[in-house]
Amino acid sequence: MRLFVTRRLPQRVMERARDMGADLHDSDEVLDADALRAALRDYDAILCTIGDRFDADLFATDVRTKLLANFGVGYNHIDVEAARAAGVTVTNTPGVLTDATADLAMTLMLMVLRRAGEGERMVRAGDWSGWTPTQMLGRGVTGRTLGIVGMGRIGQAMAARAHHGFGMEIVYYNRSAKDLPFPARRLDTVEAVAAGSDVVALHVPAGPETRHIFGAHAIASMRPEGVLVNTARGDVLDETALIAALQEGRIGGAGLDVYENEPTVPNALRALENVVLLPHLGSATLEVREAMGMMALDNVAAHVEGRDLPNPV
Ligand code: DGY
Questions:
Q1: C-alpha separations of 73 from 98, 169, 267 in Å
Q2: pLDDT confidence band for 25 (50 / 70 / 90)
Q3: Does ligand 1 lie within 6 Å of residue 234's CB atom?
């Protein structure tokens, strides 16, 4: 069984992959289409991750690979239908990054409401001339309404934190009703969530059905002081419409960890003070990244041993 790992992963994961006989691309550099095509031709299993674009055309010829074990819960960089048609199964790493991603969404919400990004930039720039009663007044969290778009694992983890930790009211949009361990009101549309919330947090998986699910209309429905938080994927949000709303002062701010064309972050966003921008850090703790890697390798091991795959998508 020939296994290929497309990117540098935490050391413990690399060691286990090496013990499994893997060839390692021990680098942060993202492989191009030719390299991925060659990997599909030459390896039985590939441990891949975000940024590795497995578009449909890669599966059109000469595919030896039977398993794409994705390091990450999101797999919108893989054309799963085309993979399936070529006999390739895709697995992912759900669950292990739920808390870390919810923590980061909370971080963004708090940073925007309390103007922490602006304050940090001011201090670093040496521009702070001292405390004043009216300086950089933000907004509190307690008692405000949080709107969750996508009440899956991460949406629920954020809602629980916001409700139990910060006394926030919760409304949500989800295709199906959820039996939730905290009070929350399900609304019929993303626009209703936008209109009914002080903060909207996006937690839907990316895919053709959710592309721009939070689009211009939803953004226009937000409250004038409303804050948008996105830790899901860039393309679930219409970034251009968001920029226009921020520039025109139609909403209060945004906290973003993901972007439509990562790693490109539009200059227009970088120029805005009321926006906090992070470099896709949702799952970025060592223990979580190790757990993700081990989970991806568990799927490889199951494949090798002919067992049911733990995490097929
Ligand atoms: C994922 O697993 O999809 C995350 O975006 C990684 O942080």
A1: 9, 28, 29
A2: very high
A3: no
- What spacing in Å lies between the alpha carbon of 9 and ligand 1's midpoint? 14
pLDDT in tens, 181-194: 999 999 999 999 99
Determine the distance separating the centroid of ligand 1 and the alpha carbon of 283, expressed in angstroms.
6
**255 CB less than 6 Å from ligand 1?**
no
**What CA–CA distance (Å, rounded) separates 277 from 123?**
17
- Angle value at C-alpha 178, between 177 and 179, nearest 5 degrees: 130
pLDDT tens, 269-278?
999 999 999 9
pLDDT of residue 259: 98
β 185-186/145-149 pair status: unpaired
Instruction: Tell me which residues are annotated as active site.
Output: 233, 262, 280
- Cα(166) to ligand 1 centroid in Å equals 25
Query: Going by CA atoms, what residue is nearest to atom 7 of ligand 1?
Result: 283
Strands of the chain, DSSP E:
3-5, 23-24, 45-49, 67-71, 89-91, 145-149, 169-173, 185-186, 199-202, 227-230, 253-256, 275-277
If pLDDT is split at 50, 70 and 90, which confidence band does 7 have? very high
Percent of the chain at pLDDT > 70 equals: 100
Rounded mean pLDDT, 169-180: 97
- Contacts of residues 22-30 at CB distance under 8 Å and 24 or more positions apart, as own/partner, are 22/47
Query: What type of residue is 80?
Result: V
Report yes or no: 136 and 115 within 8 Å, Cβ to Cβ.
yes
- Ligand 1 atom with the smallest distance to the CA of 73 is 2
Q: Catalogue all structural domains in the chain, each as residue range(s) with its CATH number.
A: 3-96+285-305 (3.40.50.720), 98-277 (3.40.50.720)
